[in-house]
């Protein structure tokens, strides 16, 4: 029997879980939201993303060894995606990326999913340092990373061009010891 995709859980959290990307269920949903101007304005993609293009990207990501996961609510509803990219097994570093569909913003889901992803990165893959970056005006991205243990490690002046002007790029990083206290607090709350 083919297992129901909604029963596949890779990382289980209190309000969300992360599971492998599943073409049939997720492709249209991914393509819709990464093209949406409200989400896209914060990403580094510039061109329209077709269904075929998105499928190719995801196939390629798998071949690269990137970890691409779909974020779901406990009832199985997909709400976004989070992943580990550019994994370097010598330096033991990776870059995290994330997006969540607009109706699910500001409900703590991004923070929770990031805590779960870092648990996998540090305690399963034995990675050492996670990196991320955001447009300086992307408060949500910076804050959800800070909530999960990241700290700001630098700022590249007028690095990114969007909507006719240059923005600073904020560089963030997280070591296991910065993530751990946040994880502990989350786990304690989870038990209650
Ligand atoms: C970044 C993103 C994944 C965060 O997900 P989320 O589920 O909305 O994040 P959370 O609900 O965990 O919020 C984290 C913090 O950011 C704050 N926040 C969220 N959206 C905000 C906004 N638009 N303006 C100001 N603060 C915001 C929350 O209040 C929360 O702060 P708090 O802990 O002090 O209360 C989501 O906003 C998103 O997909 N944005 C578009 C794509 C993107 O920016 N990806 C990252 C590219 S670097």
List the helices and strands and how they pair.
Layout: E1 11-12, E2 16-20, H1 23-35, H2 37-40, H3 51-64, E3 67-73, E4 78-88, E5 93-100, H4 109-123, E6 129-135, H5 139-147, E7 151-162, E8 165-175, H6 176-191
Parallel strand pairs: 5-6
Antiparallel strand pairs: 1-2, 2-3, 3-4, 4-5, 6-8, 7-8
Helix pairs in contact: 4-6
Bound molecules: coenzyme A (COA).
The CATH first-level class comes to Alpha Beta
Bin the helical content.
25-40%
CATH fold description: Aminopeptidase
**Sheet with most strands: strand arrangement:** 1-2-3-4-5-6-8-7
Helix count? 6
Full CATH superfamily name? Gcn5-related N-acetyltransferase (GNAT)
Number of strands: 8
Q: Major beta sheet, specifics?
A: 8 strands, mixed
Secondary-structure element string: EEHHHEEEHEHEEH
Q: Are there runs of 5+ residues with pLDDT below 50, and where? A: none
Return the CATH architecture: 3-Layer(aba) Sandwich
The radius of gyration computed from the alpha-carbon positions, rounded to a whole number of angstroms, is 16 Å
């Amino acid at each position: 029997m083919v297992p129901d995709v909604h029963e596949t859980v890779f990382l289980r959290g209190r309000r969300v879980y992360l599971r492998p990307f599943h073409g049939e269920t997720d492709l249209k949903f991914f393509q819709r939201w990464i093209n949406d101007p409200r989400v896209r304005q914060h990403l580094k993609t510039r061109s329209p993303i077709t269904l075929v293009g998105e499928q190719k990207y995801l196939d390629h990501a798998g071949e690269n060894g990137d970890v691409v996961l779909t974020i779901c609510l406990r009832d199985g509803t997909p709400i976004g995606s989070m992943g580990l990219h550019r994994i370097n097994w010598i330096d033991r570093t990776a870059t995290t990326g994330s997006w969540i569909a607009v109706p699910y913003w500001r409900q703590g889901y991004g923070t929770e999913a990031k805590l779960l992803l870092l648990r996998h990165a540090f305690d399963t893959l034995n990675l050492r340092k996670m990196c991320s970056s955001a447009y300086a005006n992307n408060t949500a991205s910076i804050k959800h990373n800070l909530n999960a243990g990241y700290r700001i490690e630098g700022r590249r002046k007028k690095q990114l061009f969007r909507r006719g002007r240059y923005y600073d790029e904020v560089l963030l990083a997280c070591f296991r010891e910065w993530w751990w206290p946040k994880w502990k607090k989350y786990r304690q709350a989870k038990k209650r």
